[in-house]
Design goal:
This protein is an alpha+beta fold. It has helices at residues 12-22, 41-46, 71-83, 94-106, 121-130, 153-162, 183-192, 229-232, 251-261, 268-304, 339-349, 372-395, 416-421, 459-470, and strands at 87-91, 112-116, 133-137, 141-142, 147-148, 168-172, 179-180, 197-200, 224-227, 240-244, 310-311, 322-323, 327-331, 356-357, 361-365, 424-428, 442-443, 475-476, 485-489. The strands form six sheets. The protein has a seven-stranded mixed β-sheet with strand order 1-10-9-8-6-2-3, sandwiched between helices. Strands 11-13-15-14 form a four-stranded antiparallel β-sheet.
């Protein structure tokens, strides 16, 4: 459904909420704070108290997220028109539930799905929930910068040739670092096999709004894409969208999957933020993105000139066709620092906080919410770090990190679902090698698993995790936070 431009000024959900808050009535429904009247005084002091009036349940005039016929349906139709989809679903459980629903809608127990090994942990959760079998394709890897890019069309073609019974292909576009692969070619390949292309586009919700940004997944031919509207646009944290086009995916099955994964008590604060973010981009998207791109160019240009720093640029190599210019990745290893150390200095001493620290790099998201002052503070902080560590670098050996993660041969011994629900035991890490992993273990962010349920634990994986831990990186998913032990499948089960 296509709307005239003036309809994009509408805010169906937000306007309905306003009308509800203006009604003077006795509330005998949830939530218990009754439109803020019973909210904690501490919470009321911390926030503008008016926000609690909008924290309402699914009243008749506010529609139903699982069977929308009113304002939610109207808002979703406007979003579909704005983002170039045939149909859009609002997500209040983040992009995680959208990715899981995409897998549930296309794969069942024992079905194969082709996906990159640097997929987000939500993909692995989707495998566990669906019972699907992963066919992993290794992404292209830059060993100099220790950064993984996208999978290539050639890699996907080989996987499709070896596994012609695969039910779907899923890709990450863009990566956490902003790298974009040849998604158009991958879409053509999957469609030749008459299977859908699913896209984790969590960090690409802004692509449709400026010609200087990479092509959006839908415009490139994707059948389904999930976008974190809160990550790079103006929605509240946890608010995302799922977009679909074409007939390769059963939309009823997709809706049912989302009903399993989404809360039956959706937050209207989140839904209203999606409604407002859509309107903002529909009316001002190009203008906002032009300003954001200008800020990103300024930051990139100035930081590139600082001694000891390297800024990630698109090299037009396999798996790296385009770069989102609003994603800034700075390599700091020539200063004799790890990304974790540099992140600590910037955050604790200089008032600048990155999105993602890694062994050699720091990644920053420049979005419509950033200001000229932010960019100036970022540049000045890097100038100070460079000056402080240049002399040290003269006598400090450059840390040479070899990220074996993307070069390892991951063997799935049993399905992630089988492993997740099997009987387990905890063993010392020194005895875990060659056992079947029962945990989803990954550094976070970006939440890309190093080990997942069903995989054989390798020495390289353990070494990499210990290296991350030694550099003060955060590792999630393991029952033992010290990483002294790991949960594995009991020998007799395996």
């Amino acid at each position: 459904m296509s709307f005239p431009d003036q309809h994009q000024t509408n805010l169906p959900i937000l306007n309905a909420l306003r009308e509800c808050t203006n009604k003077n009535h006795a509330a005998f429904y949830t939530p218990g704070h009754k439109r803020g009247q019973g909210i904690s005084s501490q919470l009321a002091d911390a926030f503008d108290s008016s926000v609690f009036k909008f924290d309402l349940p699914e009243l008749p005039e506010l529609d139903n997220l699982f069977a929308p016929q009113g304002v939610i349906q109207q808002a979703q139709e406007l979003a579909a028109d704005t983002f170039g989809a045939e149909q859009t679903w609002f997500l209040v459980n983040g992009s995680t539930c959208g990715v899981e629903a995409a897998i549930l809608a296309t794969c069942g127990v024992g079905d194969k799905i082709i996906l990159p090994r640097n997929a987000h942990s939500s993909c692995i959760a989707g495998l566990i929930l669906s019972g699907a079998i992963p066919v992993f394709v290794n992404p292209e890897y830059d060993s100099t910068l220790d950064i993984a890019h996208s999978v290539t069309p050639e890699g996907v073609a080989i996987a499709l040739q070896q596994h012609p019974d695969a039910k779907a292909v899923m890709v990450v576009y863009p990566t956490y670092y902003g790298a974009c692969g040849d998604i158009g070619a991958i879409a053509s390949l999957t469609h030749k096999h008459n299977i859908p292309l699913l896209v984790d586009e969590a960090h690409g919700g802004h692509f449709a709004f400026h010609p200087d940004l990479p092509i959006s997944a839908l415009a490139a031919g994707a059948d389904l894409t999930v976008q974190s509207t809160h990550k790079v646009l103006g929605a509240m944290t946890q608010a995302s969208m799922l977009h679909i086009q074409g007939s390769r995916i059963d939309r009823d099955r997709l809706s049912k999957a989302l009903q399993l994964l989404q809360s039956t008590s959706p937050s209207y604060l989140l839904l209203a933020s999606l409604d407002a973010a859509r309107q903002q981009m529909a009316l001002q998207g190009k203008q906002l993105m032009s300003r954001t791109l200008q800020l990103a160019i300024e930051a990139r240009t100035q930081i590139h000139q600082i001694p000891g720093l390297l800024v990630l640029e698109c090299k037009s190599t396999p798996g790296f066709c385009h770069l989102d210019p609003t994603r800034l990745t700075v390599t700091v290893s020539d200063l004799g620092l790890t990304g974790f150390e540099a992140d600590e200095i910037l955050h604790e001493q200089l008032g600048v906080t990155a999105e993602l620290p890694s062994l050699q790099n720091l990644t920053f998201i420049i979005s419509l919410g950033n200001t000229q002052e932010d960019i100036e503070k970022l540049v000045q902080a890097f100038i100070l770090v460079s000056k402080q560590h240049q002399k040290e670098h003269l006598t400090c050996k450059k840390p040479l990190w070899e990220n074996l993660f993307y070069m390892m041969d991951y063997t799935v011994q049993i399905s992630p679902q089988q492993a997740y629900f099997a009987a387990t035991e905890s063993v010392p890490i020194v005895k875990a090698c060659d056992r079947i992993c029962a945990e989803l273990i990954c550094p976070y962010p970006p939440g890309i698993p190093v080990l997942m349920p069903g995989e054989i634990i390798t020495l390289q994986a353990l070494d990499y995790l210990q290296q991350i831990q030694a550099q003060r990186g955060f590792i999630s998913g393991c029952a033992d936070n010290t990483l002294s032990t790991i949960k594995v499948i009991k020998e007799q089960i395996a």
